[in-house]
Specification:
With about 300 residues, this protein is α/β, with parallel strands linked by helices. The chain has helices spanning about 5-15, 20-25, 30-45, 60-85, 100-115, 130-135, 185-190, 200-210, 225-230, 240-245, 275-295; strands at about 50, 55, 90-95, 120-125, 145, 155-165, 165-170, 190-195, 215-220, 240, 250-255, 265-270. It folds into 3 domains: about 5-85, Orthogonal Bundle (Arc Repressor Mutant, subunit A), CATH 1.10.10.10; about 90-160 and about 265-295, Periplasmic binding protein-like II (D-Maltodextrin-Binding Protein, domain 2, 3-Layer(aba) Sandwich); about 165-260, D-Maltodextrin-Binding Protein, domain 2 (3-Layer(aba) Sandwich), CATH 3.40.190. It is built from 11 helices and 12 strands. The strands form 4 sheets. A 5-stranded mixed β-sheet has the order 4-3-5-12-6, sandwiched between helices. α1 crosses α4.
Length: about 300
């Protein structure tokens, strides 16, 4: 059994077709079919169901592929380990981050890290927490910055700092004069929120449901800064981390009768995954920066 057998099987299942998999792998379809048949003969089981319009794994194929994916991830991690530079003169860290962190956390953290390690490249991806956990599991990111309510058994987390959500509106909003927003007022306000796949939105929805609140959601967006600009230039309100609002001009916050509980921002990593020197350096920088945030009273 060769690594190419594992890569070929994985590509066929992901593409659902020998033809498309052959194109992705840059091999001929007959050669691809021969390699998979060779693997099936070696194992003595049928791995693929070829009878339908889409090629699917059999039960044996599904079980085999789960281990094959882990083996391929381990090989790729071994390659990165061999190329790892311990003196931190070069390297790369891949990080998944929800959009709500972009202003107060991600940008200053990146600046601090690159000032200290200018030879290391950072690849940042705006992702919902569910996608971050999946990306950590399949080794397509090295780290995630999200929240402590992790669902995947393959992901471990380390606490960073607490974050509090608050009702946010533009200066001059008709409700700005209120000291507390009651239920009736809150339910009469048109809102712009992150899309339903984001952890912040799920928390907001769960909070409203728990307290029997029915918000009027007028707009959904996938970028935090888009929401900030909409709120700043309209009568719409939103739910934002209070630390984000403090750094935005012309926005104000007001408490609601049913306040949100603080939530723990966390650093996510794949359990027992390989940590390059660059990744370890980013973890240390993130932990130090988060401690400064809490000690300064900004969060």
């Amino acid at each position: 059994m060769q690594l190419r057998h594992l890569r070929y099987l994985k590509a066929i299942v992901e593409e659902g077709s020998f033809t498309r998999a052959a194109q992705v792998l840059h091999v001929s379809q007959p050669a691809l079919s021969h390699q998979v048949r060779q693997l099936e003969e070696q194992l003595g089981v049928q791995l693929l169901d070829r009878t339908g319009r889409k090629v699917r794994p059999t039960d044996a194929g599904t079980a085999f592929l789960a281990h094959a994916r882990r083996a391929l991830n381990a090989v790729e991690a071994a390659g990165r380990a061999a190329q790892d530079v311990e003196d931190l003169s070069s390297g790369m860290v891949r990080i998944g981050v929800p959009p709500s962190f972009s202003g107060y956390l991600t940008a200053p953290l990146v600046r601090r890290f690159l000032d200290r390690y200018p030879g290391i490249r950072l690849h940042l991806a705006d992702m919902a927490q569910e996608d971050i956990e999946k990306a950590l599991g399949d080794d397509s990111v090295d780290l995630g910055i999200a929240f402590s309510d992790v669902r995947s058994d393959d992901v471990e987390w380390q606490p960073l700092h607490a974050e509090r959500l608050t009702l946010t509106m533009a200066e001059g909003h008709p409700a700005e004069h209120l000291t507390v927003i009651d239920r009736a007022t809150l339910q009469s306000m048109d809102m712009v929120l992150l899309g339903p796949d984001f952890a912040t939105r799920k928390l907001v929805d769960a909070h409203f449901l728990r307290h029997g609140l029915r918000p009027r959601i007028a707009v959904e967006a996938s970028a935090m800064m888009t929401i900030v600009e909409i709120v700043r230039k309209s009568r719409l309100v939103t739910i934002l981390p209070d630390v984000v609002v403090r750094e935005q001009p012309a926005l104000v916050t007001r408490p609601i009768e049913q306040p949100f509980d603080p939530r723990r921002v966390a650093l996510l990593q794949r359990r027992a995954g390989y940590r390059s020197a660059a990744t370890r350096a980013f973890v240390e920088t993130t932990q130090a920066f988060a401690a400064e945030l809490e000690n300064s009273g900004r969060v």
